[in-house]
Write a structure and sequence with these properties.
Layout lengths: L1 H14 L8 E2 L1 H8 L3 H14 L2 E4 L3 E4 L5 H22 L5 H14 L6 H15 L3 H13 L1 H6 L4 H20 L2 H27 L5
Antiparallel strand pairs: 1-3, 2-3
Helix pairs in contact: 1-3, 4-6, 4-7, 4-10, 5-6, 5-9, 9-10
Length: about 210
């Protein structure tokens, strides 16, 4: 549990911009900042390395990784749209009444437009992914999300974005209830690519350069 707590705290430091790309993550400093022992912190840094947020470099130690480039983000979202849509189609066969109820609850909470909308969104996707009964592919899907988490944190999810995603989540759930593979696949791809469009638009507005 200590290593998980260390992981979450260091992850939040990185995603909030408190620890910038290229910053060395020194064990003694983290031990003081987190009030957690070095053993759990080492485990947390190894996990963060696997997620792509941290790089463990021989003789240098752990450093905050550089975020993915626009070109990488485009490819990552292409892979996500394809993989998560396929997992959602597989989930049709295995979704239980409890899963459907959980998805309904998550949408209801997201429709309240809470500050943790992104976390609820990820949970919505996770429930569907887990229902596919393809855990290794689910791990790959999760790794793709984690690889762009630092970028996702930069772009604020505005109210109109949340409303748009909520509508798309309803369409995904309706398609799942109808057990229509083509509709599920289409709805999922639209939802994933909508997230990419927000990143592209915000990137262009902030830096006044095209996202490419």
């Amino acid at each position: 549990m200590k290593s998980l707590r260390a992981y979450e705290k260091i992850r939040d430091m990185i995603l909030s911009g408190f620890k910038h790309p290229g910053t060395r993550l020194v064990l003694s400093e983290l031990e003081t900042e987190l009030s957690i022992g070095r053993g759990p912190i080492r485990e947390a840094l190894m996990r963060l390395d696997r997620s792509g947020l941290v790089k463990n470099i021989p003789y240098k130690g752990a450093i905050v990784a550089t975020p993915p480039t626009p070109k990488e983000i485009l490819h990552i979202y292409d892979l996500r749209a394809d993989l998560e849509a396929k997992l959602a189609v597989e989930a049709i066969k295995h979704l239980t009444d409890a899963d459907i109820l959980r998805l309904e609850e998550l949408i209801a909470r997201m429709e309240e437009l809470p500050q943790n909308h992104y976390q609820l969104d990820r949970e919505f996707h996770r429930v569907i992914c887990d229902a596919s009964k393809l855990p290794h592919l689910c791990n790959i899907a999760q790794a793709l999300v984690q690889s762009v988490e630092s970028v996702l944190n930069i772009y604020r999810r505005e109210k109109d974005h949340c409303i748009k995603f909520n509508k798309q989540h309803r369409e995904i759930l309706d398609a799942l209830k109808r057990k229509n593979p083509e509709d599920v696949k289409a709805a999922f791809e639209i939802n994933i690519r909508s997230g990419l469009e927000i990143i592209k638009d915000t990137f262009s507005k902030l830096l006044n350069v095209p996202f490419e």
